[in-house]
Amino acid sequence: MSIPTLEGIDSKIITTSRITTRVLFSGQPGAHPVLFLHGNWSCATWWEDTLLALPEGFWGIAPDQRGYGESEKEKKINAVLGAQDWVEDVAALLDHLNIERAHIVGCSLGGYIIWQLMIAYPERILSVTQINPGSPYGFSGTKGNDGEKCHPDFAGTGGGIKNLDMLQRVVDQDRSVENEWSPRLGIRSLFIHPFIPAREEALLSSVLATHIGEQEIPGDYVVSPNWPFVAPGLWGPHNAVSPKYSGDVNKMYDGRISVPVLWIRGSHDRIVSDQSTSDIGYLGKIGLIPDWPGEDIYPPQPMLSQTRSFLDKYSASGGTYQEVVIENTAHIPFIEKPDKFNGILHSFLESTL
After folding, report:
1. How far apart are CA 170 and CA 212, in angstroms?
2. What is the domain count for the chain?
3. What would the DSSP string read from start to end of 148-192?
4. Tell me, what DSSP letter sits at residue 350?
5. What is the residue range of 169's domain?
6. CA dist 88 to 113, 114, 164, 259, 284, Å?
7. What is the pTM of this model?
8. Lowest-pLDDT range, 138-152, 183-197, 247-261, 279-293?
């Protein structure tokens, strides 16, 4: 599937040392580079208006990440490595473009990748902008501000937790509004605080370009004796963001990185939240998944509280951060309220020069 781009966006197919993928550009090469990492069920298309709005003097770069969009389908995500496949893809792209250091912006899954990028390649980062990022401890299956695991095998996370109806509709390239699990209605109800975006067709095309399969989304899983009786497998994005594979995130505090971090979140985000409608603990608590073992064993993951506590520790170890809430927005504030979002982002980027 070839997804159309806006006028002013330069779309290229690039082959790095790791992967062939589509990369979108705005601005002039050689200006201050700003690399954008998209979230789950999306691709670089979601960043186009943000790329075009960058101030003069900045060079916008947004790849389709492994497993999404027009990235090379033969290249899978080894979940046992956590986010490392994506992290190494980022480093390889910077190498290919002869970029030593860049400003990094990520949303949701892209934000989770940035936590790991900060640990693996601190010397390559000028600043970090996190937009509704996944918790540093992984998605679901943890409790408390320090990411204590709910079950020893991390049951309830990874590829076993899937919506088969929605997956089939992506396979079928469903563009309808006839079912609550249609991808189009998913965009309208989950990603954004209800309104219909101007480029809905392009955004929907990017969702439908998500790679589907046992080594992609949803990924594989194993049977578990612990509620909800499935645990992470070995392949694909959903397994890769399981806390089972998040590694030692305390490496963030070893003094190697202290760049400024801007954390932007939508006031009505339902995906990354302390009451996330995508979190198995919350779904069990409200009765949508039977046999929930209760708050003591498997509470809703406190995603926002975990991120705030994590960044407080980062600040105490020499870094800095600021948290900004954009009211009446959900998971994608840069599409919902672009003028507000761009004002915040541009001010932050220019302050780091």
Report:
1. 8
2. 1
3. EESSTT-TT-STTS--HHHHHHHHTT---SSSTT-HHHHIIIIIS
4. H
5. 10-351
6. 10, 11, 31, 20, 35
7. 0.97
8. 183-197
Amino acid 1: pLDDT: 56
Q: Which two tokens stand for residue 59?
A: 């060079």
What pLDDT score was predicted for residue 151? 98
Tell me, yes or no, whether 333 lies in a domain: yes
Output b/e per residue, 11-27; b: 16+ Cβ within 10 A: beeeebebbebbbbbbb
User: Sorting pLDDT into bands at 50, 70 and 90, what band is 186?
Assistant: confident
What residues contact residue 347 under an 8 Å CB cut-off, 6+ apart?
A: none
Mean pLDDT of 291-318: 97
Written as six digits, the tokens of 55 are: 């101030």
User: Residue 326 sits in a domain of what CATH number?
Assistant: 3.40.50.1820
What span, in angstroms and rounded, lies between the C-alpha atoms of 333 and 340?
9
Angstrom distance (rounded) from CA 281 to CA 198: 34
Residue 73 pLDDT exceeds 90 = yes
Model confidence at 282, pLDDT cuts 50, 70, 90, reads: very high
Written in H, E and C, the secondary structure of 85-153 is HHHHHHHHHHHHCCCCCEEEEEECHHHHHHHHHHHHCHHHEEEEEEECCCCCCCCCCEECCCCEECCCC
134, part of any domain: yes
pLDDT at 287: 97
3 assigned to some structural domain = no
Mean pLDDT, the chain, as a whole number? 96
Is 276 part of any domain?
yes
CB 37 within 8 A of CB 68: no
